[in-house]
Amino acid sequence: MKTIGVFDSGVGGLSVLRALLLEIPEARYVYLADGAHAPYGERSAQQVAERAQRITARLRKDHAVDALVVACNTATAQAIESLRQQHPDWPIVGVEPALKPAAALSRTGHIGVFATRGTVESERFARLRTRVESESSRPLHFNSQACDGLADAIERGDETTTRVLCARYLDALRAHASTPEPMDTLVLGCTHYPFAADILQALSGPDVRLVETGAPVARRTRAVLGLPEAHPSDGATPQITLLSTGDPTPLTQAAARWLGITVGATHINV
């Protein structure tokens, strides 16, 4: 049984874990939420890189994970290159806003992107956007919006604030669009945001398609581990360990609410 480490600043990475459980049910998972230092999206690149390095070293040393999934867009943007340099012999899978899948799905080429400030302002995101635009056979219009506070509201389970912020940032996205054409695709560029998908869909309307990154990340993880395709008849049951550097209660509650997992999270110092 392979062991897969997954970490995020908080509970948002559970959206990636959800996809991993569907794609690779025959694995053991160690999910670490860095709750004591969340959210990452409004921290400096140096702070995020330092946290990512400490967590990665701890997961590899204490839990003997066979692969690491950085289930955080901000940590991927600001730390994954240094992590791969420090662990060249070890598979590390990151997440990034699903610009390429969105470009393929969009009918009009007008695409909105919701992400944290740390992601939107990163060089990695700029390179991704340039690459997707250059590879496209038609004009693409990406309109990015930094959603300060949204991941934190979702983390806390504050539905009222989540709804207010979603409405505010959708209005801002439309107001600052580079063209008058309405967007038909919205990229959820933070792993927390899929847990607000119902709110975002209701606010944006039925003509806007929401795109997240969990499924492609899960498929990539299976590939780097060299695992064969699983079959429903296999009856595999994943083993899950939940860890948090902060109060473990929110992680326990979020895993139960969003994934139906009744596993108590444990506090850990990293």
Automatic annotation (TrEMBL):
The keyword ATP-binding does not apply. It catalyses: L-glutamate = D-glutamate. PROSITE patterns: ASP_GLU_RACEMASE_1. The keyword Thylakoid does not apply. Its EC number is 5.1.1.3. Keywords: Cell shape, Cell wall biogenesis/degradation, Isomerase, Peptidoglycan synthesis. Substrate binds at D8, S9, Y40, G41, N73, T74, T191, H192. The active site is at C72, C190. GO terms for molecular function: glutamate racemase activity. Pathway: Cell wall biogenesis; peptidoglycan biosynthesis. One of its GO terms (biological process) is peptidoglycan biosynthetic process. PANTHER family: GLUTAMATE RACEMASE (PTHR21198:SF2). Provides the (R)-glutamate required for cell wall biosynthesis. Belongs to the aspartate/glutamate racemases family. HAMAP family: Glu_racemase (MF_00258). This is Glutamate racemase. It comes from Hydrogenophaga aromaticivorans.
